[in-house]
Amino acid sequence: MAIAFDAVSFGAVEFGNSFTFSHTCTGSNRILHVFVTGEDVVIDSVTYNSVALTKIKEVILASASRSSIWELVNPASGANTVAVNFTPIDKYIRAQSISHTGASQSAQPDATASIGSGASPLSSTITTIADNCWSVVGITNYGALQLTASTNVTARETSRIYLMLGDNNADITPAGNLTQTVTYASGTDCRILQASIAPVAVPGVGDIFPIMTGRQFWGGR
Fold it and tell me: How many domains does the chain have?
């Protein structure tokens, strides 16, 4: 079963220490990622349908601005609540969620990578382990500059011009390096976080039709 894009959502809060928004997961062999970004803040937890996600990658700059990717294998199907909790209070936090189908229900993430800051065009390279992975990519520009998807980036959620969540929209085969690139007007305060999704394993011929010995083939005679 090949990996496929499912859905995206967005949520934000200007004051407080938590916020929620809805995300709808469909299909089978599901996986959910939430990309969270904010300044002078610590993300304490992210949940979906009250089930905790695991933080799998984070970038912290000298300005104490943070961006992180959180992951949940086999999220509940249907419309459910994403909840983000953080400290201290009264900070502006943004979160984007993306779900895929056809993902292995174990051994996730396949790999992660990031680049903390750099000038346009900015690229980050992830090295996948399993064959036919997809790479989820979260991108933010703290200069609030317009982001434009470039090499190996299909933008799925861009409700804020300085935030982008997407994927590479293709099987990475054979496994190895995948570089994802974004462009923007100027400045260097941009970061990219990547997480690759391992696909559901495809049974080999020997798994479907066990190899038979001569004795088995001839009924033991």
Answer: 1
Give a yes or no: residue 174 inside a domain: yes
From CA 39, how far away is CA 57, in angstroms rounded?
17
Total count of residues recorded for the chain: 221
pTM: 0.90
pLDDT (tens digit per residue) in 78-106: 999 999 998 877 678 899 999 999 999 99
- Nearest residue to 82 via CA among 67, 66, 93: 93
Domain for residue 18, yes or no?
A: yes
Taking only the tens place, the pLDDT of each residue in 167-221 is 999 999 999 999 999 999 877 778 999 999 999 987 654 444 444 444 444 454 4
User: Percentage helix, strand, coil, to 5, in the chain?
Assistant: 5, 55, 40
> Backbone phi, then psi, for 197, in 5-degree steps?
-105, 125
Q: Who contacts 62 (Cβ-Cβ below 8 Å, separation ≥6)?
A: none
Q: CB of 103 within 8 A of CB of 29?
A: yes
Please indicate, yes or no, if residue 30 is contained in any of the structural domains.
yes
In this structure, is residue 17 part of a structural domain?
A: yes
Residue 168: CA atoms inside 13 Å, Cβ hemisphere, count?
26
CB 204 within 8 A of CB 176: no
